Amino acid sequence: MQLNKLFAVSVLSLAIMGCESTSTISDESALATNPEGQEDQTQAVDSEGSIDVVTGTQDVQTFDPLLDSKVIYFGYDRTEISPEYKKVLNAHAKYLMANPQASIVFEGHCDERGTVEYNLALGERRANSVKSYLIVQGVNPSQLDSVSFGEERPEIIGSQETDWSKNRRAVINYKTAVANN
Amino acid sequence: MMRVYFWLCLMLLSVSARAELTIEITQGIASSIPISVVPMKWSGAKALPVNLGDIVRSDLERSGHFSVLKPDDMLSHPSQEEDVYFRDWRLLKQEYVVIGEVKLTSADKYQFRYQLFDVFNEREILTQTLTGKVSQFRDIAHRVSDAIYEQLTGIRGAFSTKIAYVTTNSLRTRFNLAIADSDGAREKVVMSSKYSIFSPAWSPDGKRLAYVLLEDTGSKVYVQDLSTGKKQLVSANKGINSAPAFSPDGNKLALVLSKDGNPEIYVVDLATRHWLRVTNHYAIDTEPNWMPDGKHIIFTSGRAGKPQIYRVNIESGYIERLTFEGNYNARARLAQDGRFLVMVHQSAKGEPFHIASMDLTRGLLQILTSDTFLDESPSVSPNGVMVMYAAKYNKRSILAAVSVDGDVKFLVPSKSGDVREPAWGPYLN
Q1: Does the residue A181 lie in any domain?
Q2: Which chain B residues are Cβ-neighbours of A36 within 8 angstroms?
Q3: What mean pLDDT do residues A164-176 have?
Q4: In CATH terms, is domain B162-424 a member of 2.120.10.30?
Q5: Is A40 on the interface with B (CB under 8 A)?
Q6: Chain A positions in Cβ-Cβ contact with residue B214 (cut-off 8 Å)
Q7: CATH number of the B29-153 domain
Q8: What is the pLDDT of residues A25-57, one digit of tens each?
Q9: Which value does ipTM take for this structure?
Q10: Pairing relationship of beta strands B409-412 and B396-403 according to DSSP bridges
Q11: For residues B282, B286, B316 and B277, what is the CA-based torsion angle, rounded to 10 degrees?
């Protein structure tokens, strides 16, 4: 019985390990801000950690796969966060609160419609909207920063609604890598 | 070998982000003035490297106010007054005829003399002699166009002015800030970056350009001296630093900063670096542009929910809303001493973005463009007649122009890459 439980925990840990190795946040958002890759803003997560075996009722700390989601999309000319992204943002809030050394830069982006300057301001509002949400969740504001790229760094170059909807976004960009501990 | 590859790559890179602008006239005014510019006489052994007549013809044609006769359709090509047979020109329904001659006066100086005739009254109404080097031929031709245009329309010509714009390759990995003649010729890249460059703004003397560089850490405002090529950082506060606009005296810059939490209009004295905050509202305030009096600034604000144009008195802080018609009015520029507003306009949600003008004395709004898509960044010629703007056309970003009255239209397609953010420069002479 005891052995069975131990086995189950080991399998679970292995499964988590698997998750961890694919969830290294090393990532498109970092590349987007550093196209030349001059500054390393990320660190690789060691994927060869030891297996923790926990006996008894103690919780195993898990890596929340929601932390892999780092893009929040917005409606046209909108800056408020739609409810579907709250789970993702809550996961990041929880992570930041558990890891006070971690910090985020929110990038705000817009689609190409409207003027360049108004969109620069709108992009900042999107980034700040996500930032405020995390502060309300209890994240220390000193862990959060924002930058607007307006319509200048589209995810997709194109002038269809499908392209535009991908470009109206806020990107969560970790200054230090998400570490599983 | 590596070095050769390096230079080759560099050359290809610079080629891919070069624009090479051309002009396609799409609409002129119905009552355009028929004019003939006879090919200029030149007795030299070798052909001149620049055809002065061609440039003058294309300037006048592009203005939309003239219908210009092709040299092949003329009955004769006179260069002396006594060879001008007015009856022939009347037969061709011409109202005005320009003749001229180019002569070499020293080793590298050329003299260009021309005469403008009124065909109906059979008399000379303008004559000028201009002297310069081969490198100044284009300047000479534009000066001639300016003088003819002013003589016949009563409006100062703006052919001798420059335009600034930003070119980019299709992958948007290279951005060039370029200046060129108002007809797109003689393009010169003044700043090249892997970062997006936007909102170029001319100083009133045409010697400096202010612009925004969007670096990885955010937007910053620079002012670049065009003669030295040196750029100076003006603003790199936390948050947005953007939308620069020189004051009419050239001493101050209006710009947008969000260091206090959201975008507000500021004015900085470039010599003393004294900052003045002009607006204070939780909505977006951006895109400042000075009124000619140097005391008022027009700007875009989202304070009514959607962007609209407002005017603020920078001394009293008094704010007045100027636009009420339409879902989206932004990036306003002034034309004709502040009598007209020219801006990006969307009539209702989901409708296309076009360029509109508004007569500020009567409050009448007129949509000027229709053939282009996602029209933005309107910039007015210093004589207040034409508006150059950026638009999508055949899936590319191109420059286009429309007259403030909507009657004249032309496209300025580039041979490669995208062209954005036009800024029409001031008079230089």
Answers
A1: no
A2: 194
A3: 92
A4: yes
A5: no
A6: 120, 149-150, 152
A7: 3.40.50.10070
A8: 333 333 333 334 333 344 444 455 566 565 655
A9: 0.91
A10: antiparallel
A11: 70
